[in-house]
């Protein structure tokens, strides 16, 4: 298949909107990461998302809308906390899980009785949905298991030849996917942290909880609330290990590991001033907000550079720690060395 690469002009977005409404797949920028969209009401198109990504069919998709009124026909009812979070955080980098209406096909919700709803604030995404005139089902636009794409070139790398169209809207603002919150009951539960943090949610609803699977590996006997929690995720080709603790101890441990792996091409991902004698040393930023923003991009850069092993520092404690931990642990397949 020939994949059209379009810019973000109004004319291009109209063309991409038509591709969507007629059953094609379009990758598009959002404020979090790039999404791989299909008309949420067209079952065949939605099935093609799973094929293009190689995504397991039991992992449900987020349905994207371009205004709040569109949500009503997609859900059965809204709990009070759903109403509060819609009012406070939409449009924005949040996804709310609600009970689904019969407008949502089981292919979209992967057989669940709920649906994930997101109203992005990125202008290109909103215009595209408006031109498509339908809600847009969209997971992140990476091959299943790979780091989420934060720039069009990542999407081109993973999806060229597999989908009808890619809209190049430059680098994504957040660089990490939306915060997923289950609002089917009166107490919201975070299923996936993002740049809207637990603290942000507790300012509005103090009882907000975090699902136990957010920071731990899901065992094969578990049925997590969010099916995506159980799959290998965000993994580059390089083998990633997280080293967690105080900056000094982390540095000491990574230096030891580098010596032990002298025969391999090693990379280090830093969030400090620590210096390393490795093949590739890439900075993820100065704090966990920057880390969350840069993580996926850097992981892809290690692959481009040919790193076989990556040691990732985790040594800053701030309100975005949970978000970075959640993604980093997964990209490392939960290989974490604590040096506290
Ligand atoms: O920022 C984002 O959320 C991006 C952009 C494109 O909007 N999308 C994204 O989609 O990250 P995806 O499919 O890569 O991740 C969606 C996550 C998965 O872990 C999935 O299992 C979960 O949301 N999810 C979707 N529907 C759900 C539902 N009904 N109940 C629980 N979890 C759900
Ligand atoms: Mg994804």
End-to-end CA span: 51 Å
Major sheet? 11 strands, mixed
The ordered string of helix (H) and strand (E) elements is EHEEHEHEHEHEHEEEHEEHEEHEHE
| Spatial strand sequence of the major β-sheet | 1-8-2-3-7-4-6-5-9-10-11
Radius of gyration equals 20 Å
Please tell me about this protein's structure.
By secondary structure, this protein is an alpha/beta fold. The protein contains ten helices and 16 strands. The protein has helices spanning about 10-20, 45-55, 80-90, 105-110, 125-130, 150-160, 200-205, 245-260, 290-305, 320-330; strands at about 5, 25-30, 35-40, 60-65, 95-100, 115-120, 135, 165, 180, 190, 210, 240-245, 265-270, 280-285, 310-315, 335-340. The strands form two sheets. The protein has an eleven-stranded mixed beta sheet, with helices on both faces. The protein has a five-stranded parallel beta sheet with strand order 14-13-15-12-16, with helices on both faces. Strand 2 and strand 3 (about 35-40) form a beta hairpin. Helix 1 (about 10-20) crosses helix 5 (about 125-130). It is globular and about 55 Å long. The mean pLDDT is about 95. The structure holds threonylcarbamoyladenylate (TXA) and magnesium ion (MG). Threonylcarbamoyladenylate (TXA) binds near residues 59, 60, 112 and 228.
